[in-house]
Write a structure and sequence with these properties.
Helix content: 40-55%
CATH superfamily of the largest domain: Glutamine synthetase/guanido kinase, catalytic domain
Bound molecules: adenosine-5'-diphosphate, magnesium ion
CATH architecture of the largest domain: 2-Layer Sandwich
Low-confidence stretches: 414-430
Strand content: 5-15%
Shape: globular
Structural class: alpha+beta
Largest sheet: 9 strands, mixed
Radius of gyration: 28 Å
Number of domains: 3
Number of helices: 22
Distance between the termini: 29 Å
Mean pLDDT: 91
């Protein structure tokens, strides 16, 4: 199929709706999407019918309300369009009510105590702004309707609901500011997101024989081969043929459902890659990122590969993250973070950037915890991803502008810098307003902020509802000042100056990976929340509850429920990892080591009988056996630590116990085992090595 026919062919997007809906209904739906009209059952009825016809023409037999429960995955329950008639035949039906609302039995999804198991009722509600798609699993075709998932009492049980609420909050506050600045045209402010997705690929024949990858998505043992990523020969290198074929299929699948997959390249670590789509409205981008992750996983299997989305599948090489590119813009096309040609004079731009600086500094722990998960604990602060300290990279020029305004000195002109590349044949490139700083967790990159802490496997809902809410809160303060101002220019300058004086401590343009920065950040009073368990409790602190409830993103109960859910999930995950490590050690690795030791003993005996002495063999035998003893003892301790953590009933205390004792006990098993791997002949090692996993596809 030619590309232009392929793109969006399986999405019930805008053009399909325009073609298939009566004009009046189409207009009505656009108004609902813009938040300017309520969806009526009559309109839903017509849309449902058109959607059903479209899906059935394409071969669908079922539809599903698709949602994002707190498991972090997505959920779906399929219903067929079939409706039996009295005379023993069947017709295909799909009503407006079925489109708008579903009622899955919700008792088995995490609710953090918001709902007892016997109160099973939950609702899914159609997200009118995110296009329905046709999902194809071989010959099984399903109409997939993106929905939000709420309890009987309206509490959010998913990742989408708070995101939608936060989008409304930031729009309301940003519009207040824009009105105060004299903008009377824009009706809404939209938060947009472009997530860059990193992932690993491994050959499925190796994957299948590693219990750790199968159950936890990461290796709990494994010694690095002589070559890792030090030559930096993988980053942006030539994409291997097998991977290119995989990427081609991924792109086609994504384009079909209207996801604008744009860039792809080799990442830093061996067998690590990245995919980025063109940015879109935050909730749609969040849905689409889930679909990207699912598509990567599904298509990999067609190529005999497995896609690993875990943040740290391998020790010793870089892990994976997501760069969450975020901006806010008006419905009539103004990007509020676009500096224009003369940022120093662009007061609206300076005002909105000030709001982001203030929000990120004031609510740094919230942003930090929005990127927390068990997998990311291996990355943040290690020498690869941004450190766990939140700081903002503005770039020299912007920093200079802010400093100039704050101190009242004239700001240097920013006009027309050209970059001389030193060769006549190369075009002159316009110099970007900012250089790149790969070490910054939160970087201004031209007309957006790039939040780089986000974990590769998680929904991007959290980082974005936090960003939207904290910026909304600051904007609401700005709006109150501006609405009463007599001299608006003076008022803006005062806000920008104040912000810089109070919050420039969060701005840092240097290398975020150095020890010096950790010290400097401590001096500046910036929080350094090293682990997820340290960060999460900030979610329920008074300040957080205040802003989330004020902007109607969460109720206090929803916050506490969510906190319990993430803590419990963390403990379960560490518990599974520990169980896997224990089993692999005691049932696979150590028995293999003992087998080998027995064989060496036999060899020593045989050699001895013929009067040959072998000190090297002898010392290898004793080294192996002493490591086996060390690992066995550590495994027993791990088992005990795991049982002890399971007994702790308070979710926070349990998570702390998992982090402090179970995790440490796992490390104690890993150390001797990784050394054993290097002492044992390859044939004796009972599972594929890092060499197989990282270098053979
Ligand atoms: P970089 O190379 O700086 O990472 P790219 O242009 O490759 O930037 O963009 C990375 C991601 O950011 C892409 O998904 C892109 O669509 C997205 N993006 C670009 N502009 C914006 C914007 N204004 N708001 C949100 N995302 C954006
Ligand atoms: Mg980027």
């Amino acid at each position: 199929m030619p590309f232009n026919e392929l793109y969006g062919s399986n999405a019930f997007g805008d053009s399909v709706m325009r073609d298939r809906l009566p004009k009046a209904i189409y207009k009505e739906i656009k108004a609902v999407q813009a938040g300017e009209a309520e969806l009526t059952v009559e309109v839903a009825e017509v849309v449902a019918n058109a959607m059903k016809d479209w899906a059935i023409e394409k071969g669908a037999t079922h539809y599903t309300h698709w949602f994002q429960p707190m498991t972090g995955l997505t959920a779906e329950k399929h219903d067929s369009f079939i409706s039996p008639t009295d005379d023993g035949r069947a017709i295909l039906e799909f009503s407006g009510k079925e489109l708008i609302q579903g009622e899955p039995d919700a008792s088995s999804f995490p609710s953090g105590g918001l709902r007892a198991t016997f109160e099973a009722r939950g609702y899914t509600a159609w997200d009118v702004t995110s296009p329905a798609i046709l999902n194809e699993e071989g010959s099984c075709k399903t109409l997939v309707i993106p929905t939000a998932f709420i309890s009987y009492n309206g509490e959010a049980l998913d990742k989408k609901t708070p995101l939608l609420r936060s989008m409304q909050a930031i729009s309301a506050q940003a519009i207040r500011v824009l009105r105060a600045l004299g903008n009377t045209n824009s009706r809404r402010v939209i938060s947009s997101v472009g997530p860059e997705q990193e992932y690993f690929l491994v050959d499925e024949k190796y994957y299948a024989s590693r219990q750790d990858l199968l159950f936890t998505g990461r290796t709990v043992f494994g010694a690095l081969p002589p070559k890792g990523q030090e030559l930096e020969d993988h980053y942006f290198g030539k994409i291997p043929e097998r991977v290119a074929a995989f990427m081609t299929e991924v792109n086609e699948e994504l384009w079909k459902i209207g996801i604008p997959a744009k860039t792809q390249h080799n990442e830093v670590a061996p067998n690590q890659f990245e995919l980025a789509p063109i940015y879109g409205i935050a909730n749609v981008a969040t849905d689409q990122n889930h679909l990207v992750m699912q598509t990567l996983k599904k298509v990999a299997r067609h190529h005999g590969l497995v896609c690993l989305l875990h943040e740290k599948p391998f020790r010793g090489v870089n892990g994976s993250g997501k760069h969450n590119n975020w901006s806010i813009g008006t419905d009539d096309g103004i990007n509020l973070l676009n500096p224009g040609k003369t940022p120093g004079e662009n007061l609206s731009f300076l005002l909105f950037v000030s709001a982001v600086i203030d929000a990120v500094d004031t609510y740094a722990p919230l942003l930090r915890l929005s990127a927390a998960n068990a997998g990311n604990d291996h990355r943040l602060g290690a020498n690869e991803a941004p450190p766990a300290i939140i700081s903002i990279f503005l770039g020299e020029q912007l920093q200079d502008i802010f400093e100039g305004i704050a101190t009242g000195r004239p700001v240097a002109s920013s006009e027309g810098h050209k970059l001389e590349l030193g060769a006549n044949t190369l075009p002159k490139l316009p110099k970007d307003l900012t250089d790149r700083n790969r070490t910054s967790p939160f970087a201004f990159t031209g007309n957006k902020f790039e939040f780089r802490m986000v974990p590769s496997s998680d929904s991007i809902s959290g980082p974005n509802f936090v960003l939207n809410t904290i910026v909304a809160e600051v904007l609401s303060g700005f709006a109150s000042k501006l609405e009463g101002a007599k001299d608006i220019t003076a008022a803006i300058k005062e806000i920008v100056t104040d912000t810089w004086k109070k919050h420039s401590k969060v701005v840092f343009n240097g290398n975020g990976y150095t020890e010096d920065w950790v010290k400097e950040a401590a001096k500046r009073g910036l929080p350094n929340l090293k682990s997820s368990v340290e960060a999460w409790p900030y979610f329920a602190k008074e300040d957080s509850v205040k802003i989330f409830t004020k902007h109607k993103v969460f109720t206090k109960e929803e916050i506490h429920a969510r906190l319990d859910i993430v803590l419990e999930k963390y403990s379960k995950q560490i518990n599974i990892e520990a169980g896997v490590a224990f089993e692999m050690a005691t049932r696979e690795i150590l028995p293999a080591c003992v087998d080998y030791a027995v064989e060496i003993s036999g060899q020593l005996e045989t050699l001895g009988a013929s009067g040959v002495k072998s000190d090297s063999l002898k010392s290898r035998l004793s080294e192996i056996m002493s490591l086996v003893e060390e690992a066995s003892a550590a495994a027993a301790k791990l088992d005990a630590a795991r049982s002890a953590a399971k007994e702790v009933s308070d979710p926070l205390k349990q998570a702390e116990s998992c982090r402090d004792s179970v995790f440490a006990a796992m490390e104690a098993v890993r150390a001797p085992i990784d050394r054993l791997e290097k002492l044992m002949p390859k044939d004796y090692w009972p599972m594929p090595s890092y060499e197989d996993l990282l270098f053979r596809i």
